[in-house]
Structure formats: C-alpha cells, structure tokens
C-alpha cells in the first residue's frame, strides 16, 4: 500500500492537457475578431436626428444611414454621425 501523502498528491494533480488548449482557443478567437471585425449583424431600429435617419450596431456602436422610403440602410459605417451627414451631403452634390 502506498503512503497517504502520495495518495493525496495524486488526487490533487490535475490534467495538464487543458491549459494549452485554453490558450490556443483564446488566441485563435482574438485573431479572428481582430481580422474579421464586426459583421454588424444586430442593428437598432432607425433613429431620426437632424432630418436624417440612421441605425446603430449593437455590438460595436458603428452607425449607418437609413432610407425610410425603401426601408434599407445605405452608405458607409462610421462612429460619428456628423461624418455620415457630411458623406450624405457630398454624395448628393456629386450625383447632381
């Protein structure tokens, strides 16, 4: 029969295979998020401000203009509403 101290130390030993797996999974997840970015899959209902309608991504906070007539989003994603309004004005000028 083995020593009681040896039996207790065997009980306390944890498998060491899980630690590299956790690190690799975390690093892979971070790399995918860094290269992929946000897919903007969850957007708010349209919000109207200053005569413009826009939507906000619930994951990252990026905004995109929204056309209420066609009920669709258009234009680039930006984090500043003033940049979106300036983009809309410049796009309207260039189309005329």
The assigned structural class equals: alpha+beta
Number of helices: 3
Over all CA atoms, what is the radius of gyration?
Answer: 26 Å
Strand content: 15-25%
Q: Per the principal axes of the C-alpha atoms, what is the gross shape?
A: rod-shaped
Please give the order of strands in the largest beta sheet. Answer: 1-2-3-4
Number of strands: 4
Kindly report how far apart the N and C termini lie: 93 Å
pLDDT < 50 stretches: none
Instruction: Please state the average pLDDT score.
Output: 81
Major sheet details: 4 strands, antiparallel
**Approximately how much helix is present in the residues?**
40-55%
Helix and strand element order = HHEEEEH
Summarize the structure.
By secondary structure, this protein is of the alpha+beta class.
Features:
96 residues; 3 helices; alpha+beta; four-stranded antiparallel beta sheet
Could you explain how this protein is built, in words?
The chain contains three helices and four strands. With 96 residues, it is of the alpha+beta class. The chain has a domain at 47-95. It has a four-stranded antiparallel beta sheet, covered by helices on one side. A hairpin with a 2-residue loop joins strand 1 (47-49) and strand 2 (52-56). The mean pLDDT is 81.
């Amino acid at each position: 029969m083995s020593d009681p101290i040896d039996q207790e130390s065997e009980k306390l030993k944890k498998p060491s295979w899980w630690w590299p797996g956790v690190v690799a999974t975390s690093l892979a997840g971070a790399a995918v998020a860094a290269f992929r970015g946000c897919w903007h899959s969850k957007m708010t209902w349209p919000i109207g401000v200053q005569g413009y309608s826009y939507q906000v991504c619930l994951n990252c906070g990026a905004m995109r203009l929204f056309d209420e007539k066609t009920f669709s989003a258009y234009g680039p994603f930006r984090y500043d509403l003033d940049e979106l309004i300036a983009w809309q004005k410049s796009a309207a000028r260039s189309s005329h």
